[in-house]
Design a protein that fits this description.
The protein is an alpha/beta fold. 40% of the residues lie in helices and 12% in strands. The protein has two domains: 233 residues, Type I PLP-dependent aspartate aminotransferase-like (Major domain) (Aspartate Aminotransferase, domain 2, 3-Layer(aba) Sandwich); 124 residues, Aspartate Aminotransferase, domain 1 (Alpha-Beta Complex), CATH 3.90.1150.10.
Length: 368
């Protein structure tokens, strides 16, 4: 059994993917080839945005966004401690200071009620993470940011394809950032990502930073980086994109079925009213997840933990002077979460097998 079944996906779309890759091999424009502009236009159409800037990874997209906003030493950026390290390491990379705000336990996303207290005169941006596949309350976050004249960068690495109030993820704040890492809801065959905005000057700046700080060869207006998306990877996204919405609907159905079958056995993910959830990971909470993981592994069922430690526990962030107990919901989640196999091709039979194994393990733990 696959945790994320990329093999089946490739077999289903093989003709389209191979055809797109073959076209790139034939024209030979491996860097910034014609598929880049085509891919960006298609992604804009999907999200309903004016600008899409494809980049080399989801991490690069966040760093480029911060640089385009001129965020650097002396500035603060608010994010959460329960996420992958990219969300905060990019803040250090531009010389700014990460400020953590705890999550709320139902959605695993930033607790908006605690957000305003973290804002200081040095706060230049809020970077909310759409963990596991659904958005935090972007309406409230955007309103708060507007009152304080700060920018919102949506970290949508796990939520591409999700919606809130009918608007797609990556089109709900000033800047949307996503990842096309293979395991993401829309993945390529390597690293990749994209930025989205309706702000013309910001789009120009992010596009320039992506290509060494300039949009014309040998003319550099900004300090940039090599953040370009490979043409071959754009070709893969173009091949997959026509099928993506069907995959999103499959994810929604499979996630809802998991929750229906497991609701009385463990804490299941809840979909916040107004949201759709793409379940980049289907994540439950149990008191003894190591025992559950071992039990499932013995039966050939893979699991994963996103994430076993909070960022304020990582040595690289020690200088921020946070302590255990500062973010109780994040800390509790990090010790309880475990993700089950989740992908659009998961059959009811495999899902029933997983659910039966989870139930048996939990009931065994309770009995002992």
């Amino acid at each position: 059994m696959e945790f994320i079944d990329l093999k089946t996906q490739y077999e289903k779309y093989r003709a389209d993917i191979d055809g797109r890759i073959s076209a790139v091999l034939e024209h030979g424009r491996f860097i910034m080839g014609p598929e880049i502009a085509e891919c960006e236009a298609a992604l804009n159409d999907y999200c309903g945005t004016r600008h899409c800037i494809s980049v080399s990874s989801g991490t690069a997209s966040l760093e480029i966004a911060l640089r385009a906003l001129n965020i650097g030493p002396g500035d603060e950026v608010i994010t959460v401690p329960f996420t992958w390290i990219s969300s905060a390491e990019v803040i250090l990379l531009v010389g700014a200071t990460p400020v953590f705000v705890d999550i709320e336990p139902v959605s695993f996303n930033i607790d908006v009620d605690k957000l305003e207290a973290a804002i200081t005169p040095n706060t230049k941006a809020i970077l909310p993470v759409c963990l596991f596949g659904q958005l935090p309350d972007m309406t409230r976050i955007n309103a708060l940011a507007k009152r304080h004249d700060i920018t919102v960068i949506e970290d949508a690495a796990q939520s591409f394809g999700a919606t809130q109030g009918g608007k797609r993820s990556c089109n709900v704040s000033t800047i949307g950032s996503t990842s096309f890492f293979p395991a993401k809801p829309l993945g390529c065959f390597g690293d990749g990502g994209a930025l989205f905005t309706d702000d013309d000057p910001l789009a120009d700046a992010m596009r320039a930073i992506r290509t060494h700080g300039g949009t014309q060869r040998h003319h550099h207006t900004l300090v940039g980086t090599n953040g370009r998306f490979d043409t071959l990877q754009a070709a893969v996204i173009l091949a997959k994109l026509p099928y993506f919405e069907d995959e999103v609907q499959a994810r929604i159905r499979i996630g809802a079925r998991y929750s229906e079958l497991l609701r009385h056995e463990c804490v299941v993910p809840e979909v916040i009213p107004g949201n759709t959830h793409v379940y980049a990971q289907y994540t439950i909470r149990v008191p003894n997840r190591d025992a559950l993981a071992a039990s499932l592994k013995s039966q050939g069922i893979p699991t994963a933990v996103y994430y076993p430690k909070c960022l304020h526990e990582q040595p690289v962030f020690e200088h921020l002077d946070y302590r255990w107990g500062d973010f109780p919901e994040s800390e509790k989640a990090s010790r309880e979460v475990i993700s089950l196999p989740m992908h659009p091709f998961l059959t009811d039979e495999d899902q029933d097998r997983i659910v039966a194994a989870v139930k048996a393990s939990i009931n065994c733990q309770v009995a002992s």
